[in-house]
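ok trying this again, last paste got cut off
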Amino acid sequence: MQLYEVKEGLRESDQEEREILAEMSEAGRLRGRAFERIMLLAGDEVIEAAHELNAAALKIDWQASGKLSGTLQEWRDRNRAVFNAINEFHDAARQDLGVSGSVRGEQHPQRDLLLPPSQRNS
C-alpha cells in the first residue's frame, strides 16, 4: 500500500523506495511461508481460498511495484478483491476448523475498505 501511494503522490514517506521494496519482499516471503503451512494443514476449500487470496494479493504487489499497470480505481478494485478474498479464506478456514459462525452474513453489516479519498493533493 505504502509503495503505491508514495509512487502515485498520494502519501509522503520518510522511507526510501528501496526500503519499502525490501519490506514488501519480506512480507512476500512471510506470506509464502504462511501459504505453505496452509497447503500442509488445510482442507481443499481452504487451500483454494488461499490460492485466490494469494493471486489477488500479488496483483496489488505488482501494481505497487510497477510490474502491472493500472489506474487508481483499478488499485482500489484490487484491494477490494483482496478484502473479499480474505473474508472467503476466513470463512473456509473457520468451517475447516469446525468454528461456528461466519465473518459475513446477518450478524455482520456489509463492510468495505477504508480508503483515502481518490483525489490527489495538489
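PB: full thing came through this time. DSSP finds four helices and no strands in the chain.
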